[in-house]
TrEMBL record:
GO terms of molecular function: aminoacyltransferase activity
Biological process, per Gene Ontology: cell wall macromolecule biosynthetic process
Gene source species: Parafannyhessea umbonata
Name used for this protein in its record: Uncharacterized protein
């Protein structure tokens, strides 16, 4: 919270929780409490990002987040502007390496004991 503005940085729920609208109820409760907080001085509650053509992976958030707002406020997206280009380049390379290692770990079995053996037909 800062002055009359409150911000909710993250919100997520499991599928079963979504079906019961638990997160909706929690957010409604938060809004009511923020309205009472400090004598009603909180007048704005920012739920942060929603999907757009710039970030279609967030489109799933739109249904949830827009049911609590009369209007959507569009803001310019953040951009990285590297000042120390060599350092930034090393971070990009390191990130790609981490992603590759994670993918390799997921692709291979944890041990030989966990590998399923094919069934042998006896005649």
């Amino acid at each position: 919270m800062s002055g009359s503005r409150a911000t909710r940085y993250y919100a997520a729920s499991a599928t079963a929780t979504m079906r019961r609208h638990v997160t909706d109820k929690l957010l409604y409760f938060e809004c009511c409490e923020l309205g009472r907080f400090r004598g009603g001085s909180v007048t704005s509650y920012d739920l942060m990002a929603i999907g757009s053509s710039l970030c279609p992976s967030l489109l799933g958030l739109n249904e949830f987040k827009t049911k609590f707002a009369r209007e959507v406020t569009h803001v310019a997206p953040d951009r990285d502007y590297p000042i120390r280009k060599a350092f930034y380049r090393s971070l990009v390379v390191a990130r790609k390496a981490v992603v590759r290692l994670r993918d390799l770990r997921r692709a291979r079995p944890a041990s030989r004991l966990e590998v399923a053996r094919p069934a042998v037909a006896h005649s």
